[in-house]
Amino acid sequence: MPSLRIRRHSMIFVMRRASIALATLAWSGVASAAPVTLIDALTRADASPRLAAAREQLEAATARARQARVSVNPEVGLTFENLGGTGPYRDFRSTETTLEVSQRLEMGGKRSARVRVARGEVEVARLGLVRTRADIARDVRDAHAALAAAEARLTLADDVIRSARELVRTMGLLVDTGKEPPLRKLRADALLSDATATRAAAEGELSTAQRALAALSGVDSEGLYAVQSQDERPPLAPIDSPGIGERIAAAERDAARARIDLARSDGVPDPVLGGGFRRFSETRNTAFVARVSIPLPIRNRNTDTIAAVRSDSLVADANLAQVRIDAMRARRDAAARLAAADGRLAALGGAGQVQAEEALRIARRGYQAGKFTLIELIDAQTAYNTTRGALIDARLDRARALAALFRADAREEN
C-alpha cells in the first residue's frame, strides 16, 4: 500500500510538472497577436507563470501540513549480548537475544503545535495566491492602459505631422510668390522636424507598451493593439473586513505565534518506551523486557530558539501594523488620483477640447483671410495638440488610478 501511494504521488508530480511546462511553452509567445480587450488580457493572465508558482507554493504548504499530522515512527531493535567472550562466553551458548519495539512519545503538545504552524503556513500561501492574482491584474490594467495611451499618442503624432507638412507646403508656395518671407518657411520646416522626432518617440513608446502587455497576457507583441472599452467604474467603498495584504500579515502573525508554542514544546523531553522478548540460549528460556528512557534537559532547553521566535512574533505584529497603515494610505492615494483624473477629464474632454478645436478653426480661417499671422496659427495648433495630449495623459492616469484602487481593495472573493 505505501508503495502504491508513493507511485501515485510521483505520477501526480510528473503530471503537474508537465502541465507547468506546457503552460510555459504556451506563454512564450506562440499565440498570434490580435486586438486585446482588457477582459481578454485579464483572462489570459490567469495562465501566468507567476500564478503557477503561487499555486505550487500552496500545494507545498498543504503537503507539509499533511506531513505535520503524522506521528513519530516506532523502532524495532535486535540486540545480541554475551557474544564471543571468554570463559563460559566463548561460544554462543550463553548468548542472550533481545527483540524490542520502542516508541518515542511526543510530549508538550509537539504534534498539535506543529500542526498549527503548518496550518498557518497554508493560510499564508493561500492568501499569497490571491495577492499574486491581484498583483497581476493590476499590472495587466496598467499595461493595457499604457498601450492604449501609446496608440493614441502615435495617432496624435501622425496628425501633427500631417498638419506640419501641409504648413510647409503652404509656406513654400507663399514664399515662392513673395507673400511670405523665407523665415516663415524655416519656421514651418522646424515644426515638421520636431513633429517627426515626436512621432519616432511615440513609435518607441508603442513598441515598449506592446511588449509589456504581451509579457503579461502571453501573446505575440508584433502588431498587438489594445481595444478601448468603456471607462470602468471604481470599486465600491471597502467594507470593514481587511484587504488581502492585511489578511496575509495577520496570517503570518498567527503562524509566528504558533511557532512560539512549537519552540516551547521542543524544549520538553520526549520519553522513549520500549518492550520485547529476551531469549537465553543456554536454557532456551524467554522473558519479557521493558525499557524507559528520557533525555535530561541539562544543556539544551531550547531557550534561545524560544527567544528567537518571540522576536519573530513581535516583528510580525509590527509588520501587521505597518501593512494596515500602508493599505489605508494606498487606497486614499489611489482614490485621490482617480478624483483628480476625473476632474481633468471633465475639463479637457468637454469644453476644453471644444474650445481648443474651435480656436484652431478660427485661426486657420483668419490666417487664410490674412487676418492672423503665422505665429497665431501655430499657437492655436499647438494649443489644440497640447489639449489632445493632456486628454490622453488624463485617461492614462485614470486607468492607473483605477488599477491601484482595485489592487488596494483586493479581497479573497476577487
Automatic annotation (TrEMBL):
Keywords: Signal
Signal peptide (from-to): 1-33
Coiled coil: none
GO terms, molecular function: efflux transmembrane transporter activity
Any Pfam family: OEP
Database matches in InterPro entries: MdtP/NodT-like, OMP_efflux
Highest taxon in the source lineage: Bacteria
Keyword Signal among UniProt keywords: yes
Family per record: Belongs to the outer membrane factor (OMF) (TC 1.B.17) family.
Name of protein: TolC family protein
Organism encoding this protein: Glacieibacterium frigidum
